[in-house]
Amino acid sequence: MSNKAARKAPKRTPRVSEPKARRAQKRVKGRGVEKGRAEGAEAEQDERRGRALGVFDSGIGGLTVAAALRELMPTESIYYIGDTARVPYGGKSQQTIERYAIEITGLLLREDAKVIVVACNTASALAIPKLEELYKVPIIGVIEPGARAAVAATRKGHVGVMGTRATMYSKAYETAIHAIDPEVRVSSQACPMLVPLIEEGWLDDTITDQIIRRYLEKLVRAEVDTLVLGCTHYPLLKEAIQRYVGPEVTLVDSAYNCAAAVKKLLAEAELSAHEEQPGKLQVALTDRSDKFLRVAEEALGLQVGDVQLLTVQQAG
Description:
This protein is α/β, with parallel strands linked by helices.
């Protein structure tokens, strides 16, 4: 007999089929796990929707954004920080402004903010890239929404921008406007004295009117047809500015356009608050401000209530 004939074929292990009941049980269990995960994700998203918007500025100016947010989205809660200990930001270096923005954003995230709204043109111009690098939460500033509104508003293709020195030196508005329409001409004017006057509450004052005239006469002579209020403090001087530049010049309110952009972002990310109850406004400052409540309540019609005093933890 040959070796091949002597070699026995290996025994095959009979395949034992899994009982149908057990297979069905596994399928049901799998569907249950998937359902549980989906419900968990839905619950987490629902919880995020109920969180507040985190808004900050160097002082009271960002309350113009808070007021616009309240007007457009009354069901959204807002946690606002005014960095009154270090106002204004406009004359500081980019490195310093980045550090301030990181520190204040950290305070807002401790309050579980679902979105960070940089209600400061200077910080929007100089610090948002750094914030986006460090944090995963959605971050939105005021410059891009303002630039889009300016391009849409101009009739002659000549836009004026007024703001702090840091914002003007950054050329952030010029860059944003030209990214939308390279043909639009942009003329800029730094107005460093306006923020201190607004923080002081000098909104309807002859000295403020004179300073507005001194700053803006160059833009008026240049015949801009659209003027961007490139600081969130400036809407508090909207009437005085409009009086000087005349009715033929369209004013672009960066605060309102920022609020509109936030509303769009929330809708797209499915983070809009539920409509069962009105939102709340909580205000915190990094230093006491005697004029803060009066300006906010009289000029903006905001009911601020109790103001929290915060200590800023310096970023390393």
